[in-house]
Every structure is written in structure tokens, then in C-alpha cells.
Design a protein that fits this description.
α1 runs antiparallel to α2. Helices cover about 70% and strands about 0% of the residues.
Length: about 240
């Protein structure tokens, strides 16, 4: 492979690709759910898809299952793509390359927060609310807000990726080529080595966690706690997925 070209780790491309497909699917199906049952803020006159609520809920559940893995990867191996201690300060340098990079990192971080809001609010909704016209529940409004934020963040994420890295970066994300050291055949051995040296790796993870800014610590805790909440709370409140 050309070492001068942008390269994305294979595991990142897999998690990013599947997450992207599920997010786009959930955004589209979420609009169709709104377009079928709500329509208060405008609608498109298209044929009704009867099982659209089930389709949206299924996509959301698969995304929720994948989200913990993507979030953990993002906050650790992929942390350079998220908000950095100097990112807010760099946003004052409007128009400069560092401004675009910092904006992209900010948007990536906001997408994780919006994703947590989406899965938590969706899990706390009941399937019968929308079909019977109960549209004023707090969780439904929270879900709509998360849907809007995800649309905005996704659009900016794509635009910023094109702006920061251009076509080579976009192609590197879509490419299935990988370097020998990044081969899936090595994943098991690397994971086993990590567990064999668990104490040292845990100490390193703690040191890295403490090294980042307080804001990112708080965001990581919110995201991971939110994901756990999305799994656990519906068990106590007997709610269904959106």
C-alpha cells in the first residue's frame, strides 16, 4: 500500500461503516415514522409503510448494540478524532486549517452525545404512543431533537471530512485494503496479549484517561453511562423501543 496516502485502521473502518449505515437508516426510517404519525411540522405526501415503526426500532436496536464498541474505540484508539484540550481555543482561528480540524472534532464529539440521547429517548418511548396520537411525551420530543442534531452533525461531519482530507481521506475510509500489521488474523493474538498484560494495560488506560482534559472525561462518562442507561432503564419502566 502507498504509505503516503491517508490510512484508517481496519477496525475503525468496520465500526464506522456499520455505524454509518445504521445511523442513516435510522434517520430515514425515523423521518418516515414522523411522516406517518405526526406531521405537525410539515410532511411529504408519500405512501405509508405499515411496518415502518418496527423497521426503525430494529435499526435502533442494532445501533445500540454496536454503540458501546464504537464509543470505547472512539474515546481511546480514535481519541484524536474527538475534541482536544485546545479545540475550543482553536475555533477562534476562523478559516485556518486548524479551525476546520477543530470543528470536525467538535462535531464528531457532538454526534456521540446525540447518539446517546437518541438511543436513551428511543428506548424510553412506548410503541403505542404515536399510533394512538399521543405526541406530547417528553421522551418523544427528546427523540425528535436527537434526530435533528444527528442530521446536522452527519452533514457537517461529511463536509468537514471532505474539507480536511479531501477525496483521499474519503477513499481511505471506504477502502477495504489494509496493511499486514492491521490484518484481522492478528486481532486475536493482539487481544490475548493485551489481556495477558492486563494490569499494565489498565494502568496505561488510567494514565491516558487522566491525561485528557476534564471536559472529555465528563463527556466520556456521560456517553458510556448513557449507553448503559439505554440498556437498563427500559427493564424497570417496561417501555418499548421507538
Amino acid at each position: 500500500m502507498n504509505r503516503s496516502a491517508p490510512y484508517q485502521p481496519l477496525i475503525f473502518r468496520i465500526l464506522h461503516g456499520i455505524s454509518g449505515i445504521l445511523v442513516i437508516g435510522a434517520i430515514i426510517s425515523g423521518f418516515l415514522v414522523y411522516n406517518t404519525f405526526d406531521k405537525r411540522f410539515g410532511y411529504i405526501p408519500i405512501p405509508k409503510i405499515n411496518p415502518i415503526q418496527d423497521i426503525h426500532g430494529t435499526l435502533a436496536v442494532f445501533f445500540l448494540i454496536l454503540l458501546p464498541f464504537f464509543a470505547v474505540y472512539s474515546f481511546h484508539a480514535g481519541k484524536r478524532r474527538l475534541l482536544q484540550p485546545d479545540s475550543i481555543q482553536n475555533l477562534t482561528q476562523f478559516g485556518k486549517p486548524i479551525w476546520w480540524v477543530s470543528l470536525q472534532r467538535l462535531v464528531n464529539t457532538k454526534m456521540l452525545l446525540a447518539a446517546v440521547l437518541a438511543v436513551v429517548s428511543g428506548r424510553m418511548m412506548k410503541e403505542e404512543w404515536l399510533p394512538i396520537g399521543e405526541l406530547d411525551h417528553v421522551w418523544y420530543y427528546a427523540h425528535l431533537i436527537a434526530w435533528l442534531i444527528m442530521i446536522c452533525c452527519l452533514a457537517i461531519h461529511v463536509l468537514m471530512s471532505a474539507k480536511v482530507g479531501g477525496v483521499p481521506l474519503l477513499l481511505s475510509i471506504l477502502s477495504w485494503k489494509f496493511r499486514p500489521e492491521d490484518s484481522p488474523a492478528n486481532w486475536y493474538d493482539r487481544l490475548r496479549a493485551w489481556f495477558n498484560d492486563f494490569s499494565n494495560n489498565l494502568r496505561e488506560e488510567i494514565n491516558q484517561f487522566m491525561a485528557v482534559g476534564l471536559l472529555m472525561k465528563i463527556i466520556e462518562v456521560i456517553v458510556l453511562a448513557g449507553i448503559i442507561t439505554a440498556f437498563v432503564l427500559p427493564l424497570f419502566f417496561s417501555s418499548g423501543e421507538s
